[in-house]
Every structure is written in structure tokens, then in C-alpha cells.
Amino acid sequence: MEIDKIIHEPARLRIMMILAGLEQADFKFLVTTLSLTRGNLSRHMEKLESAGYLKVKKSFKGKVPNTSYQLTQEGSKALAQYWENLDAVRRSGEPLINTDS
What we know:
Blueprint: H1 5-8, H2 10-21, E1 25-26, H3 27-34, H4 38-50, E2 54-61, E3 64-71, H5 73-92
């Protein structure tokens, strides 16, 4: 059993949890809700998108560009698996991260 290191990073875990509870969320909402800088949020979103966990939609609200995000089916499954694995680690008493070199 392995903990998904992409999801396990605190900011990305918060992003995944927010998106799991919403159909979609736009960039501005996430920046405000998470209190992250725009650059920091962009970097986390790129990692989640590269992993296949997010779907990105770019559009315009009037003349203003808007980027919105939603979890993919793969992202939803990965988050559910993350919680199962984390709970299994908690129950087993195994170390969360393998420190063997």
C-alpha cells in the first residue's frame, strides 16, 4: 500500500477535497479559498492536471479569461484510494513514508 505523493502534499490535498465537493471551481475562487499565491496555485494545478486528476476548462466571462477545474473520474478514484490507504496505514501502524535508502 502506497500513499499517493501527488495528493499527499497539503495544498494539493486541500484542492482535491474542495473539488470533490463541487462540480467545478474557478481559479479565482481557489486562490481566495486556499490563500495561495497565483503562481503557487498554478504550479499545484499543473501537477494535478499532469497526473490526470483534473480537467481544465478555459473560457471567457465577457472579455475576461476564466479558468475552471473539476476532478476527473481518475482524480475522484485516486482521492478515494488515498483515503483508504491513509486509513490502512493508520490502522497498521506502518510508517507513512519509507525512509529506507
